[in-house]
Each structure stands twice: as structure tokens, then as C-alpha cells.
Design brief:
The protein has 229 residues and is α/β, with parallel strands linked by helices. It has one domain. The protein is built from 8 helices and 9 strands. It has helices at 2-6, 13-26, 74-84, 123-133, 146-156, 159-163, 168-190, 192-195; strands at residues 11-12, 34-39, 62-63, 90-95, 98-100, 109-110, 119-120, 199-209, 217-227. The strands form 2 sheets. Strands 1, 2, 3, 4, 5, 8 and 9 form a 7-stranded mixed sheet that branches. It is globular and about 50 Å long. The protein starts with a helix and ends with a strand.
Length: 229
């Protein structure tokens, strides 16, 4: 499998669902009193994770992520999410960037339904990579493309390491993961007063998209319970 060549520990979605259910039960979460949220890219290919809504309360998920998966909803989003947690209940958050892996094993592209050729995935991160490869193209931040400007800013801060990597697409994905992880943890800390008495389970990793007629994967990088008292 081309995915396993790049991410040997990645789980298919159905395996991930089983792992989430098992770990939440093990940690004492009551699924009928648990809501869920995501901080993953708004690309529609990631809607394959919507099947997890059947595990949790409410239609879900609450979406923290914009393009690239960065939690652009900020403190307002986390505060709103906290206020939605059921009484005597908890919350689950799945987060991370995504990367395409084609059938040929090439990173950064997949074949989408009803298209004749591959397209970029994650388009935001690859556009950001192109920008730092050609810094003269980086323009001033505008309200009309605010989120992408933040993606480019994030990647440009890691420019030397990214451009020195063997696989620059995988490297920008790793940098995005660290940014999403750190930002989400910081937001939770900043909103801790609203989360007192609430139990959170965070699972972070890399979403790996495949061609439209195959199952996607998730490479877990972090899982933890946060319980603020």
C-alpha cells in the first residue's frame, strides 16, 4: 500500500472509529453524554470523518478548523464548544492537517470523484509551500484571504527546514500538525475557566486522504485526556 509506505502506523477510518470508541470507554467517557469537534481542513474530502457523528451527542462535529486545519475559530469557538458540553458529560476533539497520497505513492495529490486527473491535497498547504519557495510572490495580508495568509506566515517561519527536507509536502504537513497541536492546547488553556469540570479527550494526527473510491487513514500522533478542576 502506498499510504503505508509513507505512514506505516496509519489506521483506516473504520479502525480509527473502533480505537476512539475503545479509548473513550476506557477513560470513563459516556458516549451518550459526549459531543465532538474537529480542527481539520475544511476541504470536503475530510467529510469522510463525519461518520463519527453517530458515536456522539448532537449532529456534530463542531468545526474549529479552517483551511489547513488551523483552529481559526479561536477563543470564541472554544468557549462556544465548552458551553455545548452536556451536563455531567465530556467532549472529544480530533485534530490535524491532511495530506493526499495517490495510488502511485506521490504525496500531495489525490484523484477526486468525477475528475480525470489528480488535484492537490492539502491545497492550502501546497499553495503555502509554493509561496515560500518563491518568496517574491508573498503579498500583504488581506481580509479576503486572511486564513491562507496565516498559513503562509506559519510555513515561512519554518522555511529553511521545510526547503531542506527530502519530501517538502510531508514536511509542511508536519509543521502544520505542530502548529494546530500547539494552538489548540493554548486555546484550551486560555479558556480553562469555561472548561472547569469538563472532561476532554484530544486525539491529534495526520489525516491521509486517498483516491475518492478508497478509504482514508489517520496517523495518530497524540492522544490525551484533559480534565480541569
Amino acid at each position: 500500500m502506498s499510504v503505508k509506505a509513507h505512514y506505516p502506523k496509519a489506521l483506516e477510518i473504520r479502525e480509527l472509529e473502533q480505537k476512539i470508541t475503545s479509548e473513550l470507554n476506557l477513560q470513563g467517557f459516556i458516549l451518550s453524554r459526549t459531543i465532538w469537534g474537529t480542527s481539520i481542513c475544511s476541504d470536503e474530502v475530510n467529510n469522510s470523518f463525519n461518520i463519527f457523528s453517530r458515536l456522539f451527542v448532537g449532529p456534530g462535529p463542531f468545526r474549529f478548523g479552517g483551511i489547513s486545519g488551523l483552529p481559526f475559530t479561536g477563543k470564541t469557538g472554544v468557549m462556544a464548544f465548552a458551553s455545548h458540553i452536556p451536563d455531567k458529560g465530556g467532549a472529544f476533539i480530533l485534530y490535524g492537517p491532511h495530506i493526499g497520497v495517490s495510488n502511485e505513492g506521490k504525496t500531495g495529490e489525490i484523484l477526486r470523484q468525477r475528475q480525470d486527473s489528480n488535484s492537490t491535497c492539502c491545497g492550502s498547504l501546497i499553495a503555502g509551500l509554493s509561496a515560500i519557495q518563491n518568496p517574491s510572490t508573498i503579498g500583504e495580508e488581506t481580509a479576503s484571504d486572511y486564513q491562507q495568509a496565516q498559513v503562509v506566515k506559519m510555513l515561512n517561519a519554518e522555511r529553511d527546514q521545510i526547503l531542506g527536507a527530502d519530501d517538502q509536502v510531508k514536511e509542511v504537513t508536519e509543521k502544520a500538525y505542530q502548529k494546530i497541536h500547539n494552538d489548540l492546547k493554548e486555546l484550551i488553556h486560555d479558556c480553562k475557566d469555561a472548561l472547569v469540570g469538563k472532561k476532554l479527550y484530544l486525539m491529534g494526527g495526520i489525516v491521509i486522504n486517498t483516491n475518492w473510491d478508497e478509504e482514508d487513514y489517520f496517523d495518530i500522533r497524540n492522544s490525551e485526556v484533559i480534565e480541569l478542576t
